[in-house]
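WARN no homologs supplied; continuing
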Amino acid sequence: MWNCACRCHRFAFHSTVVQWVIESTSKDGLRRSVIKEPDIPRDEEIRLKTLRALNILDTSPEERFDRLTRIAQRLFNVPIAVVSLVDENRQWFKSCIGLSVTETSRDISFCGHAILDDEIFTIADTSKDERFANNPLVVNEPHIGFYAGCPLRFTDGTRLGTLCIMDTHPKYLSNDDIETLKDLASTVERELAAINLATLDDLTKIHNRRGFMMLSQHSLNLCMRQQTPATLVFIDLNKFKQINDMFGHAEGDDVLRTFANLVSKECRESDIFARLGGDEFVVLFANTTLSAAKDMIIRLQQSLNEHKQKANSKYNISFSYGMVGFDPDKHKTIEALLEDGDSQMYEHKNTTKQ
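OK structure emitted
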């Protein structure tokens, strides 16, 4: 282990997103690229879906991750330590010590190679590795001479990114060093899992109130910038207490799970669906008009009728709802939009005498 004082350099790029094309002149006079781009993992579709469902990309720095990169920097006496998450076309840094950028292109990334296997990916001397010798991150700032990245596996086994360390000079990891880096990466993995659990409802596995409030405000801000519509649907299950009283709480839990699954099937990836608590649910439909949201409600009611017939259930799963179109002048916050949706839901429930 490298125990001496850490060299705390910070390298700067000319822009926050680095994109390069490196070419070399061969004997026939033609210029050809010499960078080995990372292969695409076999589970790429699932991996990206998992990464985006975590809703961590482009979020603010957090001390729990910065603390781990500082520890890695000190332990290994390197100028750069990063928690990197590999998106479709970029690697984005949740925590970055020693670099001034927040992301780089995936096609020149070291971490894109590291997520292809469960073992630590190490390049002891980049100048002697034909895959990286002419990489712009090697020949230009930050002049990476050494790289080691431990894949970060999520609870479903997908590799979302790495905890990686870098230096401007060649280095070699001992077996103890490798185990230490793995231990630190395991801590990062636990923090990622904790983020997921903190924003998910334990019973239905959809977003909870905290997750909804975090994500929906960001979605509304995006709708305002792009001047696109959004619609909120506030949902309350009818006579849910009676189901609990007559058939037991286990049956009530099954109703909540069933309802959540049926609504989820009607939602797009861009929609935010959550259980606010008890028998209250909410959906924020991005880039959706009131008319389109109403169509979803009709499909949901049809799905509930089909479910009752298939399950031969002794009770109906029905709901009341309030539907509100997002008005930037009126709804400055997601709380204001929720309040309007809640009011309309109760009006609908009283009108239909549910």
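Residues 1-33 have pLDDT under 50 and may be disordered.
OK
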